[in-house]
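chain below, 544 aa
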Amino acid sequence: MGPLPRLPTRHLGRSPRDDHRRNPRGDRRLRPRRGDPARSRGRWRRDPWRPRLPDHAIPLALSNQRDDEYGGDFERRLNFPLQIIDAIRAEVGKDWTVGMRISGDEMTEYGYTSEDFSRMIPYLTAGGQLDYLSVSVGNYRSKDTIIAPMYYPGGSFVYLAAMAKEVLDIPVVCIGRINDPVMAEQVLENRQADIVGMTRANLCDPDLPNKAREGRVDEIRHCLGCNEGCWGHIEKAQAITCAINPTAGRELHWGDFRRSTSPRKLVVVGGGPAGCEAARVAALSGHSVTLFEAEPQLGGQTVIAALGPGRTDFAEVGRYFSVELARIGVDVRLGTRASAADVLSLSPDDVFVATGGRPLVPDHIEGVDGPNVVQAWDVLKGVASVGQDVVILDDEHHIQGLNVAELLASQGKQVEVCTRELEVGKHAEPITRTSTLRRVHTLGVRLSPTTWAKSITPGSITLYNFYSSMEHTRPVDTVVLCCNILPDNALFRELSKTSECPRHRRLHWPHRLEAATFDGHLAARALDAPQDLAVLVNIPGRRG
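prediction:
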């Protein structure tokens, strides 16, 4: 696989590559001899052999109901993995590296705990058959710990590897949302592990090791833990990518930047993810770029998203682009709401309009403009006055409605979330949604799917079931609107009416982070290579 993958990182058997639309094929030379993968691996000496125990299937008494040598008490439930280790070692010999990955704590009811893991370690390593132990966390009943979202602090599960490190003399690998080489180095210095797993971090910035080695830590694009382009794509049987690194998974076409043979003068209006990524790619390609941003900082809607509970990592988007655009020479003009005259005064060859949008107000709801109705953005920014009894009308269907509910419920307010969909947060990335639902349920938030508002008055709201049309009126202090974004097309229309305006385009509709950065990247690439537009396939969240 490596830095130039021609196969998906994880193939579910039904997803051809997005770039060339062909089904993946494995290396024919690695065909197992007599169906034995251990012998095949040993023969070709490609990679260390790393068996992973089926999560919760062997040691867990709940799912292991056998009464023979593989079930029953703790020791007998370990017979199967021990026999696997012995069989692999017998096949590949002593010269071949054999390691095991195992969950250090299943983090779920009836799952085994870190105390159980401590008991397993001597059994698994007693025979000297393992060369290293990789310690993960969770099982498929606690999936939000396996691929921990941003709600988990970096290094949350290093302590599990440290438990193994204390008693083992073989290398120990740790995982746990470690996205920073400084944090990784601290783990090694503290002797909590010998190797640090940073899969998503390297997917987000493949140059992370080199930047760390050269002392350019500020230039690293840190993984957010949003899981949108990586695990979110795997869940949908799509090729893997990254929400803030559009080249991930597209290296075959976008692996390198080629300097433009005819440098142009580009003006980008809007400092959100789309505008910033367009400016970055254009500047790296040799174009002269000026970027206008009305707010005092870069990041667009990620600045607001970072204000939600457990979402501070979204601030990394603005931080990274601030450092990177300054480094590559983009003229960034913050706090400047550009007009058509401002744009034209620079005599650009091309103009990209990435001005985002504003929250939509559902005008079909009577009284939606009342004094007790506020926007979710204003709640997150802390500028809205919110009463004790709150109804959130969630028509965004991602995570923002649940995030606002968590914020208000943590302040002691009574919160109900209503949506027209069958589920609240239906289109949110599954891991993030699972983690958030666990917290909002703990806080006592009431979720009301297939429920919407008919009318709002000061002190009450009339709700109806979206399928039966049955209505009921309940008291409420504040109604929070969490709806989709209406694009701000004012500047684009103004430029379109100007006869002297150069070539200009809008970086699409306001949409999800992954699609926004992809749009910006693609637009800048297309300045010199219009054929790159052909790569526009399977991008979730795009509209228009």
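The first strand starts at residue 99 and ends at 103. The chain has 20 helices and 19 strands.
thats it, cya
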